[in-house]
Every structure is written in C-alpha cells, then in structure tokens.
## 1
Amino acid sequence: MHKAFMSLPRLVQILLLLIPGVNLITEIVVRVSAFIAKPTLMHLLVVVLAIITLGIIGWIDLVWCLLFKKLILM
C-alpha cells in the first residue's frame, strides 16, 4: 500500500493528507504496510508514533510531501 500511495499523483497525496479523518487512516495504513514490507525498528517506531499522536505525524507528512515529494522517515 505504501508503494501505491507513493505512485499516486502528488495532488491526490496532498488531498489525502489534508482531510483530518482520512489523514489519520491513510497515515496508519501506509505506515503499517511499509512496516510489513520492510520490518525495521524505524518503521515500527513510526507506526507507533503515528497511532499515539493521532494524526499529527500526518500533518507533518503533508508539509514534507509538499517539500520533498515523499513521506517523512520513509
């Protein structure tokens, strides 16, 4: 799922990260799928952090996506 998200057009990525409820769900699904694809401690910590902060990481990812065309810590 994380590769599918990264292959979406940038406008769609930004829209998914801009809507508050969708932001949280998208963030958790993309982070969990990245952890399943490559189970490292960094991916696990980011999944836990995304769940604990309840979407704040998603807002940071929105800015990161605008600036660097990828998600933070991915």
Note: The two ends are 13 Å apart (CA to CA).
## 2
Amino acid sequence: MSLDSHIKKIVDEKLNNLFSDKKWNLKVKKKERVGNVDPLYSDAEARMAYVLHTATIMSGQLIDVLYTNSVKILCPHLKVLDIGKNEFKVSREAKTIASTSKHDSDILENSLPYGKAQKRRGKDESIQIDLMTYDSKSKTISSYEIKRGGGMHDSGKQEKIIEDLYTVRLLLKSYGERIQKLEIKKARSYVISHMGIDLFSPEYRKFEVKGYDLNRHFKTKNLKENIDLAVDYFAKEFKRRFKIIKLEACKELTN
C-alpha cells in the first residue's frame, strides 16, 4: 500500500520547514545581528549541525503529530478533540488519589469534578495529553500518552506515568462534559507504545496500546500501516535532503 496523500503532505511540510533556505538565512542573519555566530563551524557545517539538532527534536514530535492527524484522517467515527497545550488542569484531590491508589484500578470507575487546579510554583498544575478522542456512538472519551516504546521504563518512571494516567482518568469524564460540552458515558486513558515493547510491569499493561494493535484498538484499517509508512518516508527523505547539504559542506571545505 502507499502512504495516504494527506499524511504525506504533513511530513513534507515538516521536512520543507527543516530544510528551508529562507528560514536558515533568516537564522544566520539573526545570529550575525546579535553577535552569536559560532566560530567553530563554516557556514555549511553550521547548517548541518542545525539540521541534525533540529531533526532529533522533530523526530520525537513527529510521532505525536502523525498519530493525531492519522486518527483524524483514517478514523472518521472518532472526533479528535482540541485540548491545547497544557490545558488539562490537575486538581489536588485527583493527584492525591492517583498517587495513593495506583494499585487499585477499580478507583478509575469513579469520576471527580474537573476545573479547579492545584497550584505549583504559582501556576495551575496541568498534564499534557498527546491525543484525545471522542466516540459519539458509544459516548466514550479517551486520552492517550504516546511513547516511542523502545524499552520498559524503570520503576520510578513507570510510577510517574501511571500516576498521571490515573489523575487524567479521574477527571476525564467531567472534563468532556464541562469543557468539551459532550455527552459522556465512559472515559478511558491509555499509553501508546509505538514500537510495541512493554512499557510497564504486568499489572499495568491493560493500559497499554501496542503499535501493532492500533487498527484493532481504533477500529479502523491501515492506521498502523500509514504511521509506519510516514515514519519510514520521513527517515528516507531526510537522508536524501541531508546528503545535499552535506555535499555542499564538502565543496566548501575543498575550495
């Protein structure tokens, strides 16, 4: 199968932005203006360093973007909810229950009122949610944290992820009703392991969605395949474009 054209366009936009001559030239002029030019590199080498650094950050962000947009495009039965960065507020009660009841998953059948956030360093405490969907047929709202899933986390990291998952889950039904103005019968929270490796010890694996199981979980066809194709396309196209600026650097050094 071939990559969905809409998803391909999203990847191309990311790559075009990364390799944009115009954007790079503006960055160079800004560095010159503030006197922040690194004497270690030639112009071409500086651009290579910038592209590699930015691509490392971008490749991690790309997974979240691909999941969000692929679900929008390939799962018409689901509504992807716009939650905004750091919009999901965390109450003291939810945080306390989540931190003391991680071994009691029955607590997740309860719901707490959403809206009042506890303060941390003078600011409302919040949790970033990577993806949130709503199924209008079953009236189910679901939240997702997306991990690359290259290996199991240590116990401390597992505890933090599960605590956040419990916190979100306790507030999710009320959030859907009060903020998104939706009719909610069920609320669910998950962690996606993109590469399919177990992230948690067995007692918490019921909260995992493995990358190879995306089609079944989201009740659609070709979701996993398109995400995999998009990741492969990004990698191959990045290498092709990077080779061009690398050759330019080599020419600069030989002149």
Note: The first strand starts at residue 78 and ends at 80.
## 3
Amino acid sequence: MSSLGKIYVSSEGILYSIEDIRLMSGWSETTVQKLFNDPKFPAIDYGKRKLVENHALMQYFSIRREKARDTYWR
C-alpha cells in the first residue's frame, strides 16, 4: 500500500463546468476557459456550456504537462 493510503475512485460520472473547475483549482476564469478550449483537453459541448467528466479530468491531469513544451499554451 502506498504512503498515501487507499485511493477511492467513484464509479459515478460527474460533469464539471468551467466555474466548477475555477472554484476547485483557484485558477482564473481566463486560464480555465483556455484549458477547456485546448484541443487535448477532454471537454464536451453540452448546449452552450462546456463540461468535463470527472474520470476524463483525472486521466488528463495524471499525465505531466508543461506549458513551455506545448505550442497551444505559448
């Protein structure tokens, strides 16, 4: 077992909005908007809203990403 203890991952699918991610991360609305517009980010369009499913979000952030190496963020 890791030093972090057991990790529980819910099987429930939850959709997060731009505002949800902004509140959870503390990032600016501009930064989160840009994240949702990144072609590599697993956002879905639901009507006029952009959302991301919780498991897709965890998978996306489980991979190290560097602004300096990504042309979208430069």
Note: The two ends are 39 Å apart (CA to CA).
